[in-house]
Structures are given as C-alpha cells and as structure tokens.
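FORM 7B: Structural annotation worksheet

SECTION A. Query
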Amino acid sequence: MWDADQENTPLVGTPKVWTCTLVIAISVAIIGGSLQFGFQIGCMASTQPTLRNAFHNVSDTEMSLIISGMPIGGLIGGLSAGLIADKIGRKRCMLLNNIPILLGTAVMASGINKYLFFIGRVIAGFSCGIATGVTPMYISEISPVSVKGAVGVSHQFMITFGILLGFVLSINNLLTSFAGYWHFYFALPAIPAFYQLILLPLCPESPNWLYYNKEREDLARAALSKLRGSRSVADDEVDKMIKERTTTASSTMVTYKELFTNRTLRLTLIIGIALQGAQQLSGVNAILNYGPEILQKAGMKNGDLGTGLLGGINVLMTLVSVPLMDKMGRRSLMLIGQIVMIVSYIVLATAQRIHDNDKNASWTAPVSVTTIITFIIGFAIGPGSIPWLIIGELFTADARGKASSLCVGANWVFNLLVVLTYDKLNKALKPNTFFLYMGIVIFFFTFTFLFVPETKKKPVEQINLEIRDQAEKFPPTVF
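SECTION B. Predicted structure
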C-alpha cells in the first residue's frame, strides 16, 4: 500500500511540480469533499417526481424546503469550517467531516418520510459546507505557486463532475426505472467518503497550518519535503513563510474584529464575499436544481436529458478553464464569463417573452436552449471556478481560516436565497426572472471590474498592498 511517509524523498534535487504525494493528496481531498458537494447539488434536479410519489402529498413549498435543506446545513458548516480547520488542522477536519455525510446519506437513503429526508439533506449539507471551506484551503496550501490556478480549478471541476453524476444517474429509464433504485442512489455518497477515510490518513497535513497555527517549522519542512520531492525546495518555501510572517509584523492569528476594523482586511473580505455573491446570485443553482422544468419550458422535450447535457458542458468548460487560469488570469476570466452570462440572459429572457406572447414562434425554443448552454459556459469559465480559488490567494495565512469561513458562509446564504426564492419569482415574474438575474450579474461585473485585483502568480503581500492602495482612495466610511 502506498504511504506518503515512506515515499522515497530525495534530500536535494531538481524541483518537481507534480509528485505522487501531491497528486494523491489533491485527489483524496476533492473526491471526498468537492465531489460530495456537487452530487448533493445535482441529485435533486430529476428526482423530484420520484420523491413526490414516494412520500405522497409533497407540496411545491415542501419540495422547495427539501431542496433548501442542503444550503441550510451548508451555511452552518461553511461558517464553522475555518474555525474547525484552524483549531484541529485541515486534514483532521476533512477526516471527521465524513461522519455527517455518512449519517445524512443513511437518513436520506432510508427514505422513511419527507421530514427525515429533509433532516438528512440538512446533515449532508453541513458536511458540504465544511468541505467547501476546507477542501480549497487545503489543496491551495499544499500546491506549488506555479500550478495554484490549475489545482484551484480542480475543486470546481470535481464539483461539476459530481453535479453531472447526480444528473445522469437519476435520469428515469436510462438504465431502469429510477423509482426502483432511488434508495441506493442517495446512498452513493458513501463511496467517496470511504475512499477519503482510507487514503487521507496517509497524506501530509497542510504545511501552512503546521507552521502558522502550530508553530512547528520542523513538521512544515517534513510535509513540504514529501509534497515537493525535494528537501531544498521545501526549505525555500519555508523560508518564504518565515519572510511572510516577518512582513506581516504579527506572530498571532488575525481576529474577527481585525477583519472588520482593518481597512485592508475589510476590503479584502468584501471582495471575497462579493465574488461568492457573483457565483450564487447569478441564479445558476436555480437552473441546476430546476433544470428539467426550465428546459421543457424552453422547448426541449426531454428535460432530464437536457439537464444531463448542461452538466456535461459544465464539466467540459471547467476543464477548459484549467490552462486558461494561469495564462489569462483570474480577473480576466471572471469578466469574460460574466459578459457571456449577461448576453445569455438577455437573449433567453427576450426569447421566452416572445414565446409567451406568440406560441407559434417556434424559433424561440432552440434559441432558449442554446442560450442556457452559453450561460453555463460563461459560468464555468468565470464565476464557477474563480471565487473558490481566489479566497486562498487574497488572504495571508494568519487571516485565511476566519476569512474563508465568512466567505464560504456568505456563499451558502446566497445559495439558500436563490433556492428558496426562484420558484416564487418564476411564478410572479415569469421570463422577467432572467432579467432580474441579469441585473445582478451586471452589478457584480461592475464590482469585479472596479475592485477585484489580478492574483495570478502574485505573492499575497503584493496583492494586499494593491488592495490597501485601493482602500485608501475611499473614505473610511466606504471601505
């Protein structure tokens, strides 16, 4: 059996970007965390009719609450993630996080009644909230600077892959009648959970946590030696940590009060939260959770297969964004993605309004479906990937845990807001709902253009200086 502690690590040598230890540590983190999160998003899109039949008399409001169970739990987990990860370590936090996902999975798979199913969604959501905070933090802290962009996108890639699995495996009559195996379907998250439980103990702890939180320079060097395959490279990275700690002129962790009272930290936190808003308030989860219904209204006869198509495009375009992330930069891709989303919403809303007024306008169906696809493409290359990645790049290690908790918590608040309001908004505004989301995307596009710095291959000290200079251009009452 492979063991990171027994890997043959040279004392000196040429720096290796990808080592066996690094690849396995990343895969274990994202399969046990990011994949779980994605599956819990995708698992409700096509399963609603089956659940209505299984539980009987499930109203639209009750179904909205069942869907919202995950973001409710995710909000609690997201706000707790940074605190727990700072206290007990990234690795132990991820290990213990398998307890709620296994418990929530067991409750949902039992399918006793709609109330317990909702509770299972909340428990699984709590685990997903922890995962969205700790997983990107861990993989960012163990990765070399030269590939942080690509590694950061791996978190979003595995989320999209989990969404795709949730879509495809729940398509009715694809393999057999979904009503015959839905209990087994909701038990599937146990597989990646056990995968992580078996392999994560063999992976190194985050060197950043060992150095900054535990003040164990020796353990940080040992962990980096395994991750980089070179003692000399590990020594160089630890020396940079020492320099960063000296530069920040602080030997203690940043407090929550400092995050809100220090102007640089406050604006950095606002940027981090705004990027989470740009992701969730764009309405993407409305399209993912209510995909079959939206596509059928847009003119696609088989909404379930169409939703699977959207999931596949989301995965493909997230994969395409990996090489672009470190070539074009985070900020540029974010802006490009938002422009594509804005144009898609304009065309989609217009086509839907024309279709509502003229049922003979058959051309609106393919146009609507096409624009939903282009929206997913824009989301995947920009707001889908970048907010998770950039959290780890905006904050210094002494602030990262607490700031990540607040940013991830905000992400879940926005997620819950969209899931709870979409059905009512759609009934009240109809196609104009997409104009509303378009306005929100325009707002965040403007914010990104004005305030979000480029972080590609920049040290965190330089990024903080740029944000400090921005903050000083405004009165203290603003930033």
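SECTION C. Observations
The longest helix spans residues 397-429. The CA atoms of residues 247 and 461 lie 8 Å apart.

SECTION D. Sign-off
Analyst initials: ____
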